[in-house]
Amino acid sequence: AKPPKSFESLPEDSRGADGKSLLALKADAQARARVLAPDARLVKVAINLDDPRSHWIFIFRSDKSHRELTVWTKRISVRNLGPRPTKAPTLRESRLAAIPPLDRAYAALKKANPRFRPVRVEVDPAWTGSASYRFLDALGRTAFVGADGKPVFDAPPLPLAADAKPPKSFESLPEDSRGA
């Protein structure tokens, strides 16, 4: 599938992105992160699409020191996670190498929903299975494009009818617990 015209307006680093190119960039970022935390493991890769000067961002976790290291092209940011941080899946090299090129994922996304305008894309690891691209727009909506190339959008909110009635089980509750 040919990428849409809007793909040309994306940052140069994102246009040629695929698993192999991200692995090469990851090696440099990981070397820089492991100077600060020898046990740093990759948990996320991202790039902002709304700035044409953007470069890939690599986020590492250190389980021993409970820190998150964000590695940009020219700097590193360290954030303490606290004594009991939430767990995050590791983005393994084999899964990173297996993701499809970004232009194919972007083309599939735009074909499924041309009005969706992503401002950020992240390589989202999974506990099991392959990694996927997660596209985010300015309103916080997300769309995923996995290794199979099929986009999955957030579920739209359920419509609430004005004439909707509470379920029958609601009537059996005492009056003071009905929220009236």
**Strand count, sense and closure of the main sheet?**
8 strands, antiparallel
Radius of gyration: 21 Å
What structural category arises from helix and sheet content? Answer: alpha+beta
Percent of residues in β-strands: 15-25%
Q: Which strands sit side by side, in order, in the main sheet?
A: 4-3-2-1-5-6-7-8
* DSSP summary, beta strand count: 8
Number of helices: 5
What is the rounded distance between the termini?
Answer: 56 Å
Specify the helix fraction band.
Answer: 10-25%
User: What form results from the Cα inertia axes?
Assistant: globular
SSE string: HHEEEEHHEEEEH
Unreliable runs: none
Give the averaged pLDDT, no decimals: 83
Outline the structure in words.
The chain has 180 residues and is an alpha+beta fold. It has helices at residues 12-15, 19-36, 93-97, 102-112, 168-171; strands at residues 41-48, 57-62, 67-71, 76-80, 118-124, 132-137, 142-145, 151-153. The protein has an 8-stranded antiparallel β-sheet with strand order 4-3-2-1-5-6-7-8, with helices on one face. The longest helix is centred in the first third of the chain and has 18 residues, at 19-36.
